[in-house]
Every structure is written in C-alpha cells, then in structure tokens.
Design goal:
The protein is an alpha/beta fold and 273 residues long. It is 17% helix and 35% strand. It has five helices and 17 strands. The chain has helices at residues 118-124, 143-148, 162-173, 197-204, 248-261, and strands spanning 4-6, 27-28, 35-39, 42-56, 59-66, 79-83, 93-97, 100-103, 106-112, 131-136, 139-141, 151-157, 181-188, 210-216, 224-225, 241-245, 268-270. The strands form three sheets. Strands 2, 3, 4, 5, 6, 7, 8, 9 and 10 form a nine-stranded antiparallel sheet that branches. Strand 13 (181-188), helix 4 and strand 14 (210-216) form a beta-alpha-beta unit. The protein is globular and about 65 Å long. 29% of the residues are buried.
Length: 273
Amino acid sequence: KQWYQRRVAITAGIHKQHETMWPSEGTHSANSNTISEESNNLVLFEVLCTENIEVTHDTRLLTFRFLHDFYALPPMGSHVFVLNPDKKSVVDKKPYTVYNIVDHSSFQLLVKKYKDGVMSTYLCSLQPNQTTRMQGFDHFIDLNVLHKNRNIVILAAGTGITPFYRMVNEFSTNKHFNDHSCSLIFYNKTQSDILAKEKLEDLQLHMQKLEIIHVLSQENWVGLTGHIELSHLKKYSPESLYLICGPKMFMKKSLEVLSNKGVQSSNIIEFNG
C-alpha cells in the first residue's frame, strides 16, 4: 500500500524583468536576486535559525524561517535534508522530519543530540540569526490512506514523535476525522524525556477519541513500563492501521510484535529517517 505521494513538479513560464544574464540556472523569486537550485530532484534552499530552545537534556527545538521568499512549506510527513557545511566530513547531509509548521514562512525541527552525531551536533549548536542550507521535500502523507481506516494506532519512541505531532493535530482539527479513533503509545526512558507532552494533552481536548498512553523504560511509575511488547497492543484490532517511528531497534521490535499480533504489512506504515 502506498501511503505517501511524491513531490509533483510544476513547470511555469517566467518572463525576465531585465534583459540581463542570470548568474546561474534556477528560478528567481519575484522579490529577490537569489535562486532556488535543484539537486538530486530536491530543491536547495537557505533558512535562518530564529530560535533554539532546550526541550530536554538532550533534545532541542529549532525554528527556521525561509529566506528569499521560498515558495513552499514542508508537506506533512516530509523530510528536509540538512546539508553539512563541513565539506571534509563523511556525512554530507541528514534527513529530518518536520515537526511543526509555525506560520507561512517558518517551520520547526525537533533534534536529539547524539554524542557522535555529526549533524545533530551541528544543528543543536546553531544560534539565532545563523543561516544553513537544506534540501526538500521527498514525499508527503496521503491523508486519503489514513482516512480509509477509522482506527489508527501510533507507536512512537523518543523523537519518533516528530512525524505524528502534525498528524494528530490534523486529526483533532479536521472534521473529516471526527469519526476516527486514534491511540498514541509513546515510549520514553523517563517522564522528563517525554517530548511535546503538554501540546499532545492539549490536542486531546479537541479530539474525544484521541488516546495517549505513555510507556517508560527507566522509571517506576503508575503507568506502563518496559519496552514495546504484545500486551501493550492487546485491545487493538489487527485490522487497525499502525504507524510506527523511532530508533532502529524500536522499529525492528515493533515490526516483530505486529507480525506476532497478525497485523498484515498493508496495515503498517513505517516512518524512517
């Protein structure tokens, strides 16, 4: 089952205002002398970091604003590819799922910093008013696929929540999902590691059939503990649509659990990268 749609190219004829040679190929913005280049079928663009906020001890929320009147916001579920300015590094770019759209020209990334993470270290060190270059967008979620199944179960771990915040927000505000139920099972180490907790709880107020369950692996508390296992999914039907995102080991274990539950691959959507 194809759950996404690829970027669609639109070709338009543009007349130059002045009969002078453009410095390079690309498409000029109407109010700018800059261009948007294309590389590997992804559009290359520049953004300005406007905010860098600590969310937890190892995760930061970064807000970026498009420069030069860029023409499109990241579609739901799409990646932006952050380019490494260090040309000598073995890592040239890394995909990040857009966490939130702030307004018509700004978006946010939720970035977990890893000790040996080249790109996460670079991003987390960005200061307001610094610029960086990115590419996008690879694909986006086809809401028609989600709409066909009225029972949706989301399995997320850590920053694996990033593709789902916008999705759950869509469920809570789009009247076409009023008759849908959505269960989010969110896996973290401790309560202090839970990302977007208050925002998700706020969305619950707007969607009666939104259930949020937290599972902690390194803290004793009144809720569920441990790692993903079959008992956590006991009350959900194999016919539900399952969306999963998280670290590689979490993804692998989730697929094993869903297979043991009898969930068909056509009812599983994996978010990688």
